[in-house]
Specification:
The chain is 6% helix and 53% strand. With 145 residues, it is mainly beta. Strands 1, 2, 3, 6, 7, 8, 9 and 10 form an eight-stranded antiparallel sheet that branches. A two-stranded antiparallel ribbon has the order 4-5.
């Protein structure tokens, strides 16, 4: 990605309740924070560590919580399905991010628990909600061309 400003038509986030056969696009997303992937570190210092310095090795990789904000629509079946998924089994999600050309970018498929949904709050006539996801396992990132 070149770091250009993301246009609405160049981003989508979808979810699947059947393991990835059919994806449903989540409408009215305002922002998406995929979280950070980072590894645990483990100290492996021994008496023979060079120059009296501690040594470390990387451990398992963990993905932080992801979140997205939507303009909440009470009657929207997808908004309600995600709210109802809080505390349930992991769902499969697919994020598609494209460059200005509409073709180059990447598709990220990941499993996540729907961890929480804020209650919609009216601000200046707009109802918004933030949904929090907890990724589980490894994401599959596929370049689009």
């Amino acid at each position: 990605m070149s770091g250009l400003i993301m246009k609405p038509e160049n981003f989508s986030l979808s979810y699947s309740t059947d393991g990835g056969t059919v994806y449903n696009e989540i409408p009215n997303i305002n922002s998406f924070d995929p979280g950070e992937e980072k590894s645990d570190t483990h100290e492996v210092t021994t008496f023979s560590s060079p120059d009296n310095r501690k040594e470390y090795r990387n451990g398992l990789i963990d993905a932080d919580e992801a979140s997205f904000e939507i303009n909440w629509i009470f009657a929207n079946i997808h908004h309600n399905a995600l709210r109802d998924a809080v505390g349930g089994d992991a769902l499969k999600f697919k994020a598609t991010l494209l460059e200005d050309d509409g073709a180059t970018g990447e598709e990220i498929v990941f499993d996540a628990l729907v961890k929480g949904v804020t209650r919609p709050i009216e601000m200046e006539g707009k109802l918004t909600a933030t949904m929090t996801l907890r990724p589980t396992g490894a994401a599959v990132i596929t370049p689009t061309v």
